[in-house]
């Protein structure tokens, strides 16, 4: 497998993981309505990225599975939702939210680095389909990074000094 194939696989896995982690955090922090809704929205970007990466993978010698199926939340999601409602806005939940935001930010940064590596390889190889994919998806990953960073900046002062 080529270096591009390895990077495609790493990015595909990273996008799937980020989607999963965003949705899990959204459920954990269901009472934080702004966070919940935005996290759910930006998780769709990662799902689309993984789907598009899976489509381009065979052209680079790598088979990538499609996106994870999150259509049936099941009992675990219902339990998480009830726990989030019960916890509400207690101080510990704020620290958990900051922890989740930090982890989501780092995952988005990791994906962004992979997108950048693919962009450089696509330019060097004059691989227009790969460059088009990067050009379409990387800006959304950068927006995921900016969103998590902004949320950390907004929430940190209050949550870290009130504990």
Written description of the protein model:
This protein has 163 residues and is mostly helical. 28% of the residues are buried. It contains five helices and no strands. It has one domain: Ferritin. It has helices at residues 3-28, 33-56, 74-87, 91-125, 128-161. The termini are far apart.
How is this fold's topology laid out?
Layout: H1 3-28, H2 33-56, H3 74-87, H4 91-125, H5 128-161
Helix pairs in contact: 1-2, 1-4, 2-5, 4-5
Q: Brief overview, please?
A:
This protein has helices spanning 3-28, 33-56, 74-87, 91-125, 128-161.
Give the averaged pLDDT, no decimals: 88
Radius of gyration from CA coordinates: 17 Å
CATH architecture grouping: Up-down Bundle
Percent of sequence in beta strands? under 5%
Number of domains: 1
Can you tag this structure with a few keywords?
elongated; mainly alpha; Ferritin; 163 residues
């Amino acid at each position: 497998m080529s270096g591009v194939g390895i990077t495609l696989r790493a990015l595909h896995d990273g996008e799937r993981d980020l989607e999963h982690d965003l949705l899990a955090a959204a459920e954990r922090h269901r009472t934080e309505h702004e966070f919940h809704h935005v996290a759910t929205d930006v998780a769709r970007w990662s799902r689309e990225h993984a789907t598009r990466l899976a489509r381009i993978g065979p052209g680079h010698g790598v088979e990538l599975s499609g996106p994870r199926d999150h259509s049936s939340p099941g009992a675990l999601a219902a339990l998480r939702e009830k726990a989030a409602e019960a916890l509400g806005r207690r101080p510990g939940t704020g620290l958990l939210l900051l922890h989740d935001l930090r982890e989501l930010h780092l995952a988005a940064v990791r994906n962004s680095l992979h997108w950048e590596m693919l962009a450089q390889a696509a330019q060097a190889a004059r691989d227009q389909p790969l460059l088009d994919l990067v050009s379409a998806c990387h800006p959304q990953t950068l927006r995921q990074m900016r969103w998590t960073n902004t949320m950390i900046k907004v929430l940190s002062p209050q949550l870290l000094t009130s504990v």
